[in-house]
């Protein structure tokens, strides 16, 4: 979501004649697009601001947008008096106001809902992967999560606006559509004529665009994987055989305290249904270790579910107490040392499974999407249908957008392969 927000902001600024620089000491405007989901992310913002306030050009304007702006509110101005603007995740479309009046201060952390989508100019060209937000906010209220506070209650965009964005992206360069939302599979829009639409309708509409070769969506809530959506994995070949379906913990005890009221059997049932719809599907998850009250036994149950589902490409985090959340006030907070030990064990297991899966891809030919040059600039990086990075010995300048790649080599982190004719 932040990548998308950043692309929209950059595109708006380009439209006003700005050019991008990698060197903030040379910038006329510095915008930190921020994430507040863990304390570390918020801390990084303020330490970066601490550096930038002294090193930036004296008349450069500087500000923060996104969830840290909403989390810290006007206190951000007190902590960093050089800030010119503090704009929440739903008010960054107000940025032009400060560009027009750089001598003022701009503060807006309102939850304006969908206003930003229409207020920002369309991006002139689409990247190969077009991120298209279809809903904002979240109604789930997991007890650890700051998102319902920073991004507000769930609200779905009108289907016409979403399809307009899909067509525009397809016509201006996109080959993959990634539908976005904090609770993307909760998408529900009722049109003025009374007809209701769900994510499966959007997937069907995107698949009709010839230019679009791959479709995916993130992030999903387990109990909102409705049958119509699961069926899409059977019928819609453009939908990638890869799904991020965060379970967070394998312990019912912890899930209850997290206010994620689903049983492991229900979760496994959903995974089984997905596998019967698309036998080659792979699942990834987000995990939190060291949630308040998590016992060794609870943690073992998380390892058990990892072995059972054989997750790939997952994200794991130490629990981080956040303001405006219930879990931060819960008893039995887990010491940092135990959190670190558990994270280490979980990561070791996830890595082992990831390596096995990557190795199982060797000798297969996969249809992949070009991503960009590797670090040396000599070779091309592609993304497989499972979003594994794959390095191909071909000059990035002549790399086709979509290529059939025979995988020749694999390790824990990436694949290597050759383009097939
Ligand atoms: N501490 C650690 N991880 C968190 N996440 C959300 N809130 C927290 C928190 N307080 C993780 C969840 C979520 C991902 C985006 O970030 O795993 O799925
Ligand atoms: Fe946060 Fe995701 Fe839970 Fe919503 S479903 S409250 S975004 S962790």
Topology:
Elements: H1 2-15, E1 29-34, H2 39-55, E2 61-66, H3 67-72, H4 75-79, E3 85-87, H5 95-100, E4 106-108, H6 115-119, E5 129-133, E6 135-136, H7 147-151, E7 155-156, H8 159-171, E8 176-180, E9 188-190, E10 196-198, H9 199-207, E11 214-218, H10 227-235, E12 242-244, H11 252-257, H12 264-277, E13 282-284, E14 286-289, H13 296-309, E15 315-318, H14 336-360, E16 365-373, E17 380-383, E18 389-392, E19 402-410, E20 415-419
Parallel strand pairs: 1-2, 2-3, 3-4, 5-8, 8-11, 12-13, 14-15, 18-20
Antiparallel strand pairs: 6-7, 9-10, 16-17, 16-19, 17-18, 19-20
Helix pairs in contact: 10-12, 13-14
The structure holds 5'-deoxyadenosine and iron/sulfur cluster (SF4).
- SS content category: alpha/beta
Helix content: 25-40%
Low-pLDDT sequence parts: none
Mean pLDDT level: 96
> Which small-molecule species are bound to the chains here?
5'-deoxyadenosine, iron/sulfur cluster
How many H/I helices? 14
Which sequence of strands runs across the widest sheet? 16-17-18-20-19
Portion in beta strands: 15-25%
* Broad shape: globular
Q: How widely separated are the two ends?
A: 35 Å
Report the radius of gyration as a whole number of Å.
22 Å
Q: What can be said about the biggest beta sheet? A: 5 strands, mixed, barrel
Number of strands: 20
